[in-house]
Request: fold
Amino acid sequence: MEEELRAFSEQTMQGPKEKSGLLCIPGMQEQGAIWIDTLFAVTPFMLFSGLSLHESRYVDFAVDQCLRMIEALRDTSCGLLHQCRGYVGEGIEELTPRW
Reply:
């Protein structure tokens, strides 16, 4: 199981990233499309992987992605986090300006 965990972790670290290095929606790197789902799913996985495998770079990656994603998604007017940035689904009218 350690081999699989390491393989998935390495694949995650090489995943698609937007220009600042945040993991993003595959195929939408140019738009900078990021989802809060990455914050709630990928970063805990990478933390678990790093702790389980004693691999500090996985832990560092998780912390870096988490802190920078929070900053990228934070609405400074109220302190809440947006669901995404740089993405509006087909047929959905955008309610707020893109930042």
